[in-house]
Amino acid sequence: VTRSTRQLTGPARIAVDLLGGDHAPAVVVDGALIACSADPDLRLVLVGPTSVADEVLAALSAADRSRMSVARATRSADRPLRAARPGTTVGAAVDAVLRGDADALVSAGDSGATVTAAVLGLGRAVRRPPLAAMLPGLDGPVVLLDVGASVDPSPPVLVQHAVLGAAYAGAVLGLEHPRVGLLSIGTEADKGDRWRRTAHGRLALIKLPSGAQFVGNVEGYDVSRGARADVVVTDGFTGNVLLKGVEAAYVLAGGEMSADTAPRAAALLGTGGTVIVCHGEATGPDVASGIELAAQLHRLGATARLGRSEVII
Amino acid sequence: VTRSTRQLTGPARIAVDLLGGDHAPAVVVDGALIACSADPDLRLVLVGPTSVADEVLAALSAADRSRMSVARATRSADRPLRAARPGTTVGAAVDAVLRGDADALVSAGDSGATVTAAVLGLGRAVRRPPLAAMLPGLDGPVVLLDVGASVDPSPPVLVQHAVLGAAYAGAVLGLEHPRVGLLSIGTEADKGDRWRRTAHGRLALIKLPSGAQFVGNVEGYDVSRGARADVVVTDGFTGNVLLKGVEAAYVLAGGEMSADTAPRAAALLGTGGTVIVCHGEATGPDVASGIELAAQLHRLGATARLGRSEVII
Asked: What's the pLDDT tens digit per position in A201-233?
């Protein structure tokens, strides 16, 4: 059993939202160039204004330039509702996937807008598609989901997150029997709020994909330590707060959450395509890490494998 | 304006639960000895079996031994409901405060049991007394509450936490205009779940104690960075998960959350006494830090000042 993300090769065409993120387009251009130079099989669909796409093209050799195509779009969707409007970069990136011009998309724009555009354009297999982050646990990567796609803590949603998280850990981390934990405030089954207590009872009864086993409640520690679970399930409110708190703590303690240990981007699970969300404050290397994650998920056939996992619910 | 906890002197009599915590009594004995040696004005009421109290007494000089008294109790309350039974150490510690034999109590036992014992014995000024932790933010300590006394995220409870947190920051950190933030998943007022959105509207309208100002939503980062708020308000589920995640991240990143920067213990606010909860996994220095926090709160008259803050709601 390997505990790290597997590096695969093979063609992968990734649509990149040039206008997404607080520091776009500069960091996205950086990220695209870093990703291209690291992965010779990668092809990018640059989604944004022609002037920004030209900046990427100008920095590349003629040979590398042939790996690029451009999809023109002129404005970013900075709020979820704007994702439904025509002409946004994230909407055009979704269209590129829908048309078959790209295998996956990456955006560091407003995550609500990316989720909305993906659900509208690609469809969804679950009511609340979760964002799955990967944290560098002491014993290996830990998948944490949801980290902010929705804030619904209801038991059916938590159970769906567990199913998708188990399938994701199987597909991406190559784990044969991932351990799935429910994030709570104590390890006993009766700890937590009423949603967690109900979800705990249901998770103990169902069969999870990837031969996963439900290990019961885990705590905030466990997303960093990684000793008790490979997948940590929670609602998008708690997961978002926890991820940001842990990230800042790593930085302040003098460490960092390096893309070498775990991708600095989250995967949207349970839609009809492969969608990667980078943080709004993403740096160039973070965006590159998101592009590489998108390519890996495509190469692993992760979206198709997650789609099949749905029948188990 | 000072941004660190003020070190005061003067008599303080602290009841210490010798049986509380995963590694009791050893770490509690350690903590008691460390605290006594660091603070000559401290007096302790050792609450537990005679054999354990004798261990502390044997390690002290005759002069220091005169600073100790013993309240005998033979069993720990390892579950909240057991706190109501007679003969528990945490119940006996509450009794010591009630009788006026101690000014405050410290326990590293089950925090639910300590909260129950405190509410039953000392009374409460608010419906859900929160546990307030202090984290070592980059710019100074950050008060985070609730970190696990209850899991109720309803807007009236969040508003009460904000009031108590503001009063606590004023009394303990000496801040004249503490900045109070509501923990959410984005800085805009409409980010978060329905409870946060409602609480945000109410917090924008009320007058907080200590001249505090409501700065709106803050994010997971802000409990470590400290740049945006001195007090971070959330429900006990989210706060507990976040605190544990941040603690583990500090340790794994090679740093630590030192008692020099912020106490390694949480204060239960809104009851009729001064009550400090240490983590179940607390070490000796952590317990000592909790005892010192209890002494400081007593010396500052914090409980009385927080009691007065209630009228503002």
From this structure: 999 999 999 999 999 999 999 998 888 999 999
Contacts of B138 in chain A (CB under 8 A): 252
**Number of C-beta neighbours around residue B140 at 10 A:** 19
Rg from Cα positions in chain A: 18
Contact: B242, A220; criterion CB under 8 Å: yes
- What CA–CA distances, in Å, run from A33 to A13, A136, A289? 14, 25, 12
Would you give the end-to-end CA distance of chain A in angstroms?
26
- pLDDT-wise least confident of A271-280, B176-185, B219-228: B219-228
Return the ∠ at Cα A145 (arms to A140 and A148), rounded to 5°: 130
Can you read off the two tokens belonging to residue A225? Answer: 């330590």
C-beta atoms of A225 and B148 within 8 A: no
Q: What would the mean pLDDT of A72-95 be, rounded to a whole number?
A: 88
Give the C-alpha separation, A193 to A176, whole Å.
31
| Residue contacts between A and B (CB atoms, under 8 Å) | 128
Q: Which chain B residue has the Cα nearest residue A221?
A: B245
Q: B298-308 burial string, b = 16+ CB within 10 Å, else e?
A: bbbebbebbee
Which stretch of A22-26, A278-282, B303-307 has the lowest confidence by average pLDDT?
B303-307
- Chain A hits for B192, CB-CB cut-off 8 Å, are 151, 237
Question: In this predicted complex, what is the ipTM?
Answer: 0.92
Contact in structure between B220 and A248 (CB atoms under 8 Å): yes
A194-206 pLDDT tens trace: 999 999 999 999 9
- What gap in Å lies between CA B265 and CA B245, rounded to an integer? 16
Contact assignment for B185 to A236 by CB distance below 8 Å: yes
* Sheet strands (E) in chain B: 12-17, 42-48, 68-72, 104-107, 131-137, 140-145, 179-183, 213-218, 231-233, 265-268, 274-278
Is A248's CB within 8 Å of B151's CB?
Answer: no
A261: CB partners within 8 A, 6+ apart: A136, A141
Provide the 3-class DSSP secondary structure of residue B9: coil
- Nearest CB to A237; choose among B224, B225, B238: B238
Name the burial class of residue A22, with classes exposed (0-12), middle (13-18) and buried (19+) by CB atoms within 10 angstroms of its CB. Answer: exposed
pLDDT digits (tens, 9 = 90+) for B245-266: 998 888 877 766 665 667 889 9
pTM: 0.93
Are the CB atoms for B81 and B57 separated by under 8 Å? Answer: no
CA B166/CA A4 separation, integer angstroms: 45
| Closest B-chain CA to A246 | B246
Query: Which residues of chain A have a CB within 8 Å of the CB of B240?
Result: 185, 219-220
Give, in order, the Cα–Cα distances in Å from A97 to each of A254, A298, B302: 39, 12, 60
Is residue B1 very low, low, confident or very high in pLDDT (cuts 50, 70, 90)?
very low
Q: Which residue, among B196, B219, B237, would best test binding to A if mutated, counting the most A CBs under 10 Å from its CB?
A: B237
User: Partners of B17 in the beta sheet?
Assistant: B47
